[in-house]
Amino acid sequence: MSPLCVQWNAAAVVNNRGLLRMAVANDNQQSRISKVELPHKLKKKKRVFILGGTGRVGGSTAIALSKLSPFLQIIIAGRNRERGAAMVDKLGDNSEFTEVNIDDFKSLEAALRDVDLVVHAAGPFQQVQKCTVLEAAIRTKTAYVDVCDDTSYAYRAKSYMDKAMAAGVPAITTGGIYPGVSNVMAAELVRLSKIESKVQPERLRFYYYTAGSGGAGPTILATSFLLLGEEVVAYNKGTKIKLKPYSGMLNIDFGKGIGKKDVFLLNLPEVRSAHENLGVPTVSARFGTAPFFWNWGMGAMTNLLPAEFLRDRSKVQQLVQLFDPLVRAVDEFAGERVSMRVDLECSEGYNRIAIFSHKQLSKSVGNATAAFVLAVLEGSTMPGVWFPEEPQGIAIEARETLLKRAAQGTLNFIFNKAPWMVETDPKEVGFGIYV
């Protein structure tokens, strides 16, 4: 078992073969993890450089890291000194701010020379043509984690595999909450299905829900708009297919605290990476938001605006500025609940799911990214550029600890259960059997 001091309101059992089996019901209480006791090799101060640390994702990652480990020195990197100073005040003595321009390779390279790991949280990643931060990390032999949610960028990062291996640099791409934690959940579902029941995985589906902008504001709004300009890649029985973005609506039950929500097809990197790395022939991903009219608006944009317009970052930024006041107003009452559900269907009718739900996206994405950072610092990751589901990226024996760290404060965290066990309002029939 991992060396954690845990207050874990869950049923988490590891059998004698080290298999992860988690089922968290929470019963109207939040799961919590107290301060993590890190291994001895992290008892000296490590320096973590968070690019985009003044933003919502980078800032929440910094806060999560400061709570999980007092032994880390956190460098907040960004362009806004005032916001950087405010973040340092919040974090305390083990933090500092440095002004960095992501487009200035020389200054970025210089800034990374005395740090142990860089977190790239300066999105959006859509339509970005260069992996400048990863290249600088390899040049300076600095470990790397990004929160990329774009397929093209993620596979561009993977093209640096040989350079990262030669430099001895461990790197994780798509290491946030979704993709990221969702990939690890999927990897464990697939692994356990093969071991426990000797079945073959046939279909893997990712479902995501976030209320409003999830409190992330302009960045997630820009990401969503840019994704509407991308054809959706999915896989059907091993064949790659392309579908219209924000089509294929399904009404999915996300369980306690969230309920049933409409979700729509989006082009997300975990579809391709899970298909290739986990060997599942049919894979897709869907996303939905609230209030319901946001889904209508996203669908209308897909139908009314040319794809070329939605792929243009400058035009999308103009749209974001136009909609931002409305989004912020709606966020006040929509909240920022987030949920992800991973469904695995196998041969012989063997089906399993995992659900992760949290009241606040801003906190949960910080916990998730921090979990990846600590896994890399603790030696889980081999040199090279890896997706989260690859065992060379997050070692199988490190997945339990990563999921525990990421799932702190969750409303509902259920793992490796039959689908009927997570229904919001299950119906009891016959002899006490739920269907």
Automatic annotation (TrEMBL):
InterPro entries: NAD(P)-bd_dom_sf, Sacchrp_dh_NADP-bd. It comes from Cinchona calisaya. Residues 48-170 form the Saccharopine dehydrogenase NADP binding domain. This is Saccharopine dehydrogenase NADP binding domain-containing protein. SUPFAM superfamilies: NAD(P)-binding Rossmann-fold domains.
